[in-house]
Each structure stands twice: as C-alpha cells, then as structure tokens.
Amino acid sequence: MENKEKQPLVQVKHLCKYFKVGRHAELKAVDDVTFDIYKGETVGLVGESGCGKSTTGRCMIRLYEPTKGEVFYDGKDITKLSKAEQKKFCQKVQMIFQNPYASLNSRMTVREIVGEGLKQHGTPKKEIEKRVQELLETVGLNKDHMSRFPHEFSGGQRQRIGIARALSVDPEFIICDEPISALDVSIQAQVINMLKDLQEQRGLTYLFVAHDLSVVKYISDRVIVMYLGMVVEEAETEELYSNPQHPYTKALLSAIPEADPDKAKANRRIPIKGEIPSPINPKACCRFAERCEYATERCFKEVPELREVCPGHKVACHLMDEK
Ligand code: SF4
C-alpha cells in the first residue's frame, strides 16, 4: 500500500521549540516543522550541527516540551496522554543517544542498565536476567558482559549496550540521535547494519538523525533536510539524492566524497559561503538567503513555503515558483 493511503505512525505538526536567551531574545531551534513517519520506514533527518534536528527528535519523545505545535503518536497528541497512555508511550518510543560515553550511567552494571526499563515495566526479576542475556546476544555481546561497568567497554560496545537498553521494552519506534557519529569509522558500518537487521526482524520504525549524508542515504527510505530550524526539502531517498532541488541540499550533496574517480571529476563541489547564521531572533525571510548563490530580493523579504513540487517531494524555495 502506498504511504499516502496509510495513517502515519508519527505526525509532527507545526512544531516549534524556542529557548529564551536573555530578556528579549529567543533562540528558534525548531520553527514550524511538519512531517509524517509511517510504520516500518526509516526517515533520515539531516543538516549541519545547530539546524534543530536533535531538538526535533527530543521534542518527539518529550525530552523537551514543544513551544508550539503538536506531535501525534498513533493518532494521539503526546502532550495530552493519560497516565496509562504515557506509560505505554514511554515503552513504545525509545531513543538511542549520540554519545555512548555520556548516555550510560557509569555506576550501573550492564545488567542494571539494560534491565532498568524491564524493571520499571514490572517484569519479574528472574525474567529480567534472562531477557537481559537475550538482548545482549541480540546486539553481539554476551552474558559475561552483564556484571561489567560501561568504562570497561569500547565506544562501539557501549553503543550496543545503548541499543540493547532501547530494545529492552520492545519498542515500535526508535529515535536514533546521531548514533554513530562518536564512533570509529570501522565500527560505524557494524552498528548501522545491526540497526538495519533489527528493523527487519522486529518491524521497527526509525527516525535517524545525522549530519553525514552518505550514512543517511544507506539507511533511510525518506530524507528530510533541515536548515536553521526549518525543513527545506523532503523526498524519498532515491529522489532526493538523484534530483535535489533546494540550493542547500544541492550544496550538501556535492560535498559527499565520490569513490568513482570519473564521477568525482564530473561533480562540481558547490561551496556554501559564510557561516551558518544565528538562530536567535531570525528575520522573516529565507534563512538560507545570506549563503545562497541564487538569492533575490524576495528571498530576503519572504519565508518560502514548503510545498510539494512532485509527488512526495517537497521543497521550500522561491525558485520553485518559476518551474
Ligand atoms: Fe536561495 Fe531564495 Fe531559494 Fe532561499 S528561497 S534557497 S535564498 S533561492
């Protein structure tokens, strides 16, 4: 069935997250972001650091309360859940964090870390022991690791412990917040492949937050590109990488190293001039205007609307009006 005919598992609607900075200033980390995620798919959320992708993920699991807008999970507004629904939501939606060094409590053993969620959900002690062992085996560790502490593991192993912890409560949807960016390149592929296998075996749905576009291409069904708190482009992976429309997406993709020397010669690297502007009190214009080689007067006066330019492909750029 086509996605459009199905009810999305997650709906993010006009989500805003602003942080007060001083008396009169506001840092608009996420500003009017809307997208859907369907059951069983992986959506990649990409952009430079500071673009609001991680903040979006954190609002979706209520680590941050949205300033405005809504997030629906399975048709329900996540800010209006009853106590029982909230407990279920915490079980169904899990997060894997960027930094496997900081996200595991250094004073807890692996048995306690992975078993914590099971304990909270009332699993009997004997059952927890068995489940923790199974979960460790699922992520490529074993029962000998149960009594050890996080500092006794490598970065890749710690991320595996983080994944086992997320899986412990049998979730449906996992927000993977830059899960491999703190790992050695040699380990990154192992973790990505494991996430892919787990998705297939367990029918998981992922939001994969990352700044590395080549990794996102490999794992995602659809990709959403963010710039300075807003979505600038969204499309199926194949479409986005072969037919990018937004000048920012084009520049990001042109910076991916090409293994084939002939293709590398043919590809023109599109430079992005200047630094990413401050998200504090941004002007009502295209946020990419100062760095865009196609910017016109209109771009400095009007926020471009994110609109569908062909089925499933949305772009927020005034250039699209000329097409
Ligand atoms: Fe560039 Fe204007 Fe499009 Fe913004 S709206 S990306 S400034 S052409």
UniProtKB/TrEMBL annotation:
Membrane-crossing segments per the record: none
SMART domains per record: AAA
SUPFAM superfamilies linked to this entry: P-loop containing nucleoside triphosphate hydrolases
Keyword line: ATP-binding, Nucleotide-binding, Transport
Domain ABC transporter: 10-253
One of the record's GO molecular function terms: ATP hydrolysis activity
One Pfam entry name: oligo_HPY
GO biological process terms on file: peptide transport; transmembrane transport
InterPro entries the record matches: AAA+_ATPase, ABC_transp_ATP-bind, ABC_transporter-like_ATP-bd, ABC_transporter-like_CS, Oligopep_ABC_C, P-loop_NTPase
Keyword DNA damage: no
Listed PANTHER family: D,D-DIPEPTIDE TRANSPORT ATP-BINDING PROTEIN DDPF-RELATED (PTHR43776:SF7), TRANSPORT ATP-BINDING PROTEIN (PTHR43776)
Family (UniProt): Belongs to the ABC transporter superfamily.
Name this polypeptide is given: ABC transporter ATP-binding protein
